[in-house]
Design goal:
Elements (H helix, E strand, L loop, with lengths): L6 H13 L3 E3 L6 H11 L3 E4 L1 H8 L11 E4 L15 E4 H7 L13 E7 L7 E6 H12 L10 E4 L6 H13 L2 E4 L19 H5 L3 E4 L1 H16 L3 H19 L5 H12 L8 E4 L6 H10 L4 E5 L9 E2 L12 E2 L4 E5 L15 E7 L17 E3 L5 E11 L5 E6 L3 E3 L5 E3 H8 L5 E8 L6 E7 L1 H10 L6 H6 L1 H17 L13 E4 L19 H7 L1 H7 L4
């Protein structure tokens, strides 16, 4: 299954589950080599995709997939067999439906393989995570228990990649509970989205969803769009908005609401997502407290944070609707247990004060069966004396007295500087993402150096305005490479780092040098995953020349 999020994807998945055919999923943004590797490793015989992906990405690699016999494309157009390998049959989904033969339902057993989900991962080759039917049921049972009143009155807007465990389990849950699903895309979500014609309505406005899942990157984008609109208001409007925002924020922190502010100030903002959203769920990466509070205030709905991995079928923790704290990911779901394992080298142990900290291990029936054809390379999975499967996440967590978890670090994100201080790159990025001049940031440190550097995708509108004020004119690329603009962004970074209340950065954690990237990082560029997590290895290789420059080399 290699196609974007659409109804045909879910119809195909349900058909495979019903007939007990294992479903193999790939992100539409995976590179050609990675897709060829996965198709061959899993021995795929039938491929379902879109014409666009078939023509642009798959056609060139099909001769390398000897076991593939049938390709089904989900669009209405007809595809000519010319240029495709001999012996490969091409069908439209309509043609498959017209064939009409319906084999007997092969009811799957709980232990049968349901999905091999290839993750782009933040490092190396894609890995196929083996998810059995009982893993799916366990994971979704845990997730749905945290969404009160889930049922036929709900409408869910689907736009995240369906080959991602968060979206796949969310949509199967909607089908189970009788919720409506409306299919969208990140480029058509709101009236202001890039592929919506001026004056036309976005998908949220038309569909008016009640439930929505989002990755922090999308929420950060919504936050910045709304706040830039606020800056364009008249002085009086802007002052009213700011006063109302601060007042409602105080009320939310106390566990109350502000109905008058909702009616007078936030009704218009709420309509950006259709006006009916009653709950949003964020997953895939840490959500900054600033963005979480912004969504609470302006969209008048709770924002739940979830924590889970493909390896745990998307389930781990989700915050309760009544939990008004920020930065935490909630308590364990009913389908699993969580324990912390000391990581003395990184300075995280169960004896830490005020709360125990350590590597997060997730155990339970939602923990998947390991990686496809891993040849014993599944050292992150283990079975305990009671027969329960566990997965070692590599994330560092802190457990609060009320049983809620906060992710505070990641083993792979920790770098030891020359003088012996540990720097958490993820923490640095989370603190600095709140800077108005920054759309995206990657912190980097070398163990043989004593300072941190960073690559930044700047906000084009704001940086261009600052450049004009300084008399710097030119193309976007020329503005980004101008030394003065690097100094401006660095100054802003230092100011945000010093004043950040949510993340206390030490002096040695604040980036000393910066490179401004004129190109945004998207899954298509291969520099971030489909959930917009940074691919550190790829980013390092991409900016190697600039790393050498910033560390005093060439």
């Amino acid at each position: 299954m290699s196609t974007a999020t659409r109804a045909e994807w879910m119809i195909t998945a349900q058909a495979c589950f019903r007939r007990n055919f294992p479903l193999v999923t790939f992100y539409a943004t995976l590179g050609e080599d990675a897709i060829a590797y996965g198709l061959n490793e899993s021995g795929v015989t039938h491929l379902v995709t879109s014409i666009e992906l078939l023509e642009s990405k798959l056609k060139s690699v099909l001769p390398q997939i000897p076991k593939l016999k049938h390709v089904i494309y989900v669009d209405q157009k007809k595809v000519s067999a010319e240029g495709y390998p001999a012996g490969l049959s091409l069908y439209s989904m309509e043609a498959v439906r017209e064939l009409g033969a319906r084999p007997e339902n092969m009811k799957p057993q709980p232990s049968d393989l349901a999905v091999v989900m290839y993750t782009s991962g933040s490092t190396g080759r894609p890995k196929g995570v083996m998810i059995i039917h009982s893993n799916l049921i366990a994971g979704m049972t845990g997730q749905c228990e945290r969404i009160p009143g889930l049922g036929p009155n709900d409408t869910y807007i689907a736009y995240l990649p369906l080959a991602h465990v968060l979206e796949m389990t969310a949509e199967i849950s909607c089908v189970t509970y009788g919720c409506r699903i409306g299919y969208s895309s990140p480029q058509t979500l709101s009236d202001q989205s890039t592929k919506i014609k001026k004056g036309s309505k976005g998908d949220c406005t038309v569909l008016r969803p009640t439930l929505m899942a989002a990755v922090p990157e999308i929420m950060d984008r919504i936050n910045k769009n709304v706040m830039s609109k606020v800056q364009e208001m008249s002085y009086i409007q802007r002052t009213l908005f700011t006063l109302g925002y601060k007042y409602k924020l105080e009320q939310i922190k106390r566990g109350y609401d502000a109905p008058l502010c909702n009616a007078l100030l936030f009704r218009k903002v709420k309509k950006l997502l259709g006006g009916q959203v009653r709950m949003m769920l964020s997953g895939g990466a840490p959500l900054s407290p600033v963005t979480q509070r912004f969504m609470n205030v302006c969209f008048c709905c709770p924002v739940g944070q979830g924590y889970g991995l493909t390896e745990t079928c998307g389930a781990g923790t989700i915050t309760e609707v009544v939990d008004i704290s920020t930065g935490r990911v909630g308590a364990p779901l009913i389908c699993c247990e969580i324990r912390l394992r000391d990581w003395a080298e990184g300075g995280y142990t169960s004896k830490d004060k005020p709360n125990p900290r350590g590597e997060v291990l997730i155990g339970g029936p939602n923990v998947t069966q390991g990686y496809y054809r891993s040849d014993g390379n599944d050292q992150d999975f283990f079975v305990d004396d009671n027969g329960q499967r566990w997965f070692c996440t590599g994330d560092i967590g802190e457990v609060y007295p009320d049983g809620c978890l906060q992710i505070v670090d990641r083993k792979k994100d920790l770098v030891k500087l020359q003088a012996g201080e540990y720097v958490s790159l993820g923490k640095v990025e989370s603190a600095l993402k709140n800077c108005a001049l920054i759309d995206n940031i990657c912190a980097y440190a070398n163990s043989d150096q004593n300072y941190v550097i960073s690559f930044v995708v700047p906000n084009q509108k704001k940086l261009t305005e600052l450049a004009k004020q300084r008399g710097i004119v030119g193309t976007w690329e020329e503005i980004c490479t101008h030394p003065d603009m690097e100094r401006v962004v660095l100054g802003e970074i230092k100011e945000v780092a010093v004043n950040s209340k949510s993340f206390k950065l030490q002096r040695f954690e604040i980036p000393v040098k910066v490179h401004l990237s004129p190109e945004p990082w998207t899954p298509e560029t291969g520099l971030v995953t489909d959930a917009f997590k940074l691919k550190r290895k790829e980013l390092k290789n991409h900016y190697l020349h600039h790393i050498e420059r910033m560390y005093g080399g060439k």
